[in-house]
Specification:
98% helix; mainly alpha; 99 residues
């Protein structure tokens, strides 16, 4: 009879342990589902960041190209201004000779 009580006691302990394991597994499933959801959200945000980065990189490239063109144009304008001043000076000198 004592053996039967001991077996029943052990059986109850096993059932209790199994119930705890079921609870733990259920909690783990919930945690995994939350992690999956978090990963999906991170993927979505990463995609947005990549799109914005690509747009900014394209914009930066365009601005750099535009600035390069502007620098060339300013250099050319400076050169033309010098040429025009030189021509005006020559014309003034010629006009002084003619007077």
């Amino acid at each position: 009879m004592d053996d039967l009580k001991l077996i029943l006691q052990k059986l109850d302990e096993l059932k209790s342990g199994i119930d705890e394991l079921r609870t733990d597994v259920s909690d783990l499933k919930t945690d995994v589902n939350e992690l999956k959801s978090d990963v999906k959200e991170l993927d979505r945000k990463t995609g947005i960041i990549l799109d914005q980065t690509a747009g900014l990189t394209e914009f930066q490239t365009q601005v750099t190209d535009d600035l390069s063109d502007i620098k060339k144009e300013i250099s050319f304008i400076g050169h033309k201004e010098y040429q025009n001043e030189k021509d005006v000076y020559s014309i003034k000198k010629q006009l002084e000779i003619i007077k």
